[in-house]
Structures are given as structure tokens and as C-alpha cells.
Amino acid sequence: MRRASWHLQRVGRQLDRRFFLSLFRAMLAFVIIAAVLVWLVEKPWTLESLFDSINWAIATILGQGDSSFVVSPAGRVIAWILILFGVAIFGTITGALVALVIDFLLKEGQGLGASGYRDHIVVCGWNTTARDLIEELKGDDYKAKIVVLADVEKNPAGEGVYFVRGDSTSEADLDRAGVPEAAAALVFPTDSSGHSDMHSILTVMAIESIAPAVRTVAEVNNPKNVEHFRRAHADEILVTSRLASRLLARSALYPGLSELMTDIVSGGEGSELYRIALPDAYLGLTIDTISAKLRADHRATLLSVNRGGRAFVNPAADFVVEQGDDAVVVAESLGTLAPLELRQTTDEPRTAAVVPSA
Fold first, then answer.
1. What are the tens digits of pLDDT across the range 97-139?
2. How far apart are CA 187 and CA 315, in angstroms?
3. Which of 25, 53, 122, 156 could form a disulfide with 185 if both were Cys (CB 3.0 to 4.6 A apart)?
4. Which residue segment(s) compose the domain that 294 sits in?
5. DSSP letters of 192-225?
6. How many independent structural domains does the chain possess?
7. Could you tell me if 297 and 337 are in contact, meaning their C-beta atoms sit under 8 angstroms apart?
8. CA–CA dist 194, 199 (Å, integer)
9. Are residues 18 and 92 in the same domain?
């Protein structure tokens, strides 16, 4: 409904209102003239018969008129002209409606519409990482709505993903993608050049200017540009090349780690990573007690507790969960656990950039 409303507003701004207003006035004038002529030619000169003539003229132009209302040759000629005029009027209106539907379908197919979603994920830019991310999100338990904003001719993500064609640094295109109502925006470079990083930084700045409460996650080509992403206030930053090299190094020292990491971050079979909202019953409990309850009740292994934008991994035994804490667990599925709400609030502390250390 929001998407259709956006198209109606767009068409309304382009519509020639004077043409339709003139058409309506002509139709009203023709109906009144025809009704008065029939009233003068055939009917008693009373207000009631005049009203009956006007009612007949309106019904005739709508295709529901009573042909027996007129009996004289002059009255029948008036009725024929009225019928022909009604066909022309409704042909024009029907053509306008058909043109509106066709325009809607064409604009949607070309990525020139507006998503109309709320609490969705916006993917800005397109590359192989974005393609794999879409496949991962499609199979995730969270079932988030996804919008791809990219300057390409057709939808690169396929069915089930809404496509907006445009420039991710343009506020108008970001608005069509629904960034102000989104839960998160993921920014990807279109290629491996430094220019793509600069475009991503401008994208983050544009998002922060119109929707500072939306969480932004950026993929970076060159590690030297990380500081620029921080200055642009990206919430999370991922240098994929550096992350891959760290994982390869650890796998060389400890065989099997790469397969383990691939399994827990993928959406295939086996256990996966989830960020969850801790049940109220867990408040005030120690980390060891919570770990045991998650394992017993949900077959979930606790990895960290997150508080105020900081992740506490393997905290001390006397660590106690407080109001507002959430957790990262490894489990086969969410089950009865509640996923953490994606939408970022304006008063939430900014999360530090995620860049693998040396």
C-alpha cells in the first residue's frame, strides 16, 4: 500500500489536472443540457420531472440508463448522443487507469519505484560479497525484508528482493530504498579500486545525514581507508581481505578452524551465529549460570554478552547480566529464543568499528 501510494503521488505531480477538470466540467455540462432538452421535449415542466431527467442522463452516461425513458424521435436522438459521449468519457478514464497500471509495472520492473518497507535491510552497491550476503539472508531465521540499491539495469538479486535502481549517495534514491525506515544499511564497494571506497564513504555520510539511527555496516577494500569510514560514522567496518588473511593464518597454525568458522557463519546445515535478546528471567544471573541454562533449555552455546556497544567474550565467573544486555550464541536454530531487534535507536551508543587486529 505504501509503495502504491508513492506511485500515486508521483503520478499526481505529473498529472495534467486541468485536462481532467475540463473533462469533468464538459461531462457535467453535457449531462445537464441533455437532461434539460429531454425535460423540455417530453416531460412535464416540474422540478420532479427535471430531477428524473437528470438522474436518467447520469445513469445513461454510466451505461445503466433506461431506454424506455424517452419515446419521441428527438428524445431518442439525445439519448444516442449521450450514450456515445459517455463511451468516449469512460474510454478516456479507462485509458488513463490502464496507463497508470502499466506505468506502475514498468517503473517497478526497472527499479524506479519505492520499496515502502519498514525495519528492512538495505544493500547499497553490488559485488560478489553482496550476492553471497543476499543468499545468506534469504536462509536466515530472522526473515528480514531486503532492498538492493544499485546502479545496474536489472535486479541482480533475483526474486524475493526488492530492487531500486539509483546512486547510493543520492538522498532521493536512498529515500526510495526506504533507508529512513530501515533497520540496517550494508554498504559494498562495486569493485576493488580505491575510488569504490571513496564512493562507499560518501554513501555512509549520506545515510548518516538522513537516517542517523540506522545501523551502517561497510565493507572496505583498502585498510588505509578505515579511518575515513570511522570519521563518516560507520557503525561497523569489515576489511574482508584482512579478515581472510587472519583466518588463514590461524588455520595454518590450528587445522580445521577455517571449516569451523565457515560452518557457524553460514546459513547451511549445522550450527550458526545468532545475536539474541536475553530473557528477563536471566537478569541478575552469573555468566556460568546463564551459559548452563542456554545449553540446557535451548541447545545454544554462549559466546559473548554485549553491553553498551561492547562485547564481553569469556568474562569472569562473577560477571552478572544486567538490564539491556544481549548475547551472541551458537545454535542450530533460534528456536524459542528472540532475535535482537535490528532497528538502532538514536540514543544507543555507537559500536566500535570491527577491524581485525594484527
1. 787 777 777 777 778 888 888 889 999 999 988 888 888 777 6
2. 32
3. 122
4. 271-331
5. SSHHHHHHHHHHHHHHHHH-TTSEEEEEES-GGG
6. 3
7. no
8. 9
9. yes
